[in-house]
Amino acid sequence: HARGKGEGEGAGGGSGGDKGGDGSSLRSRGGDVGRLIRRCELVNAVGELERVYFRVPDYCLLLTEESKQELLWGVDRETPGMQIQELFERADGLTREMLLQQRLSHSALWQLVMANKGIADNLVLSLALAQNAVIILRFSWEPPHGSHLEGLILFENYANTVMGSLQLLACIVVFLIYAIQKGPLRLQRDFKEATGYDLEELCALPLEKWRLSYVLLLVYYTMSDTQLLLGASLILSSVLGLTLSPLWFSTHLLDVVNKSADLQNVFMAVTLNGRSIAMTALFGAIIIYLFAVVGYATDGSIFMLGNFPDPDVPMCTNLLSCFLNALNEGLRSGDIGSFMSPTTVDDVGGYAFRFAYQFAFWAIVITILLNVIFGI
Questions:
Q1: Collapsing DSSP states into helix, strand and coil, what is residue 41?
Q2: How far apart are CA 40 and CA 52, in angstroms?
Q3: How many whole angstroms separate alpha carbon 165 and alpha carbon 63?
């Protein structure tokens, strides 16, 4: 049995001998030393409690708060013993992060950037709210021509330029912090899980052992980093907002996802089952395609969209249009029969086909498949 504690939590109590010195002498060395001293209480083979003191490497103090919280809440907290097992599994990645932080901490520029990280992070959403308030005012109200209120238009343009420039700067800072601090670690973790190689080992490989799949994996894992892509898209939106139209600044409101733990949990719940949802959606598209094939092969002319008082619009002139319209109109309206020309019961063959075709689409696609997707 073992318990790990910081020296600041006290060194007294317990039976058995102290390994590494007396607790009171350690406390007398001051708070800085105390931060680097930890103890472990062990029950030895004869049942005695022993207290072992050990020094923590300096870089262990550099683990970011985000990583601490991710580790604290990301491990399996239900299964006994899994917390320790998952800690060991994540130890390599955490060590890499702390060593990277140690290297970065030697840079005065990096220290300056990190000192203003909170300001830049909060500016993105705060400026987005202010910018979009100005945008709503600008594109919803037009002062009378010749009115002295036309000066407000110039003020709005100036305000958007100033806030847009600050927005661009804040987005660049936030993007660089993530790209330097977290991006490489995530890329290395995913790549090692897929290939068994660290990036350092990959760079040291001889040319004949390189595979095209390694390059494709590096590109794939880089492009699948949603946080990295969001940061890059916000920078692009800032540039477009300054050069083309201020309406581009509306995309910065998406930064609310980074500020809300509840929204992050919602997206996490979706992305955890993303593969299942994607495969079910693909299967649904295949089923709709089969319905389109049956409809086109039977009689494509019965697929007509009413456009009164203008002539009806044919919806199945070829197989592609039949599939796209079945996918669009059939899913949105929930009834593929909404763009099929009606017939009477006197036309036994046509009525029977429409009944079976429309009912099967409703039962298989609308009722079963959509509920499966929504239930995943």
A1: strand
A2: 5
A3: 32
Token pair of 41, please?
A: 């209480």
Q: Which SS3 state, helix, strand or coil, does residue 354 take?
A: helix
Residue 55: name the closest of 34, 27, 29 by CA: 34
Q: What is the CA radius of gyration of the chain?
A: 31
- In DSSP notation, 284-352 reads HHHHHHHHHHHHHHHHGGGBEE--TTSPPEES-SSHHHHHHHHHHHHHHHS-GGGGB----TTSHHHHH
pTM: 0.60
pLDDT tens-digit readout, 317-357: 888 988 998 888 888 888 888 888 888 778 888 888 888 99
What does the pLDDT look like over 100-145, one tens digit per residue?
777 777 777 877 777 777 788 888 888 889 888 888 877 777 666 6
Would you give the end-to-end CA distance of the chain in angstroms? Answer: 41
Closest to 195 in 3D by CA, of 208, 205, 207, 184 = 205
Joined together, the tokens standing for residue 216 give 């494709």
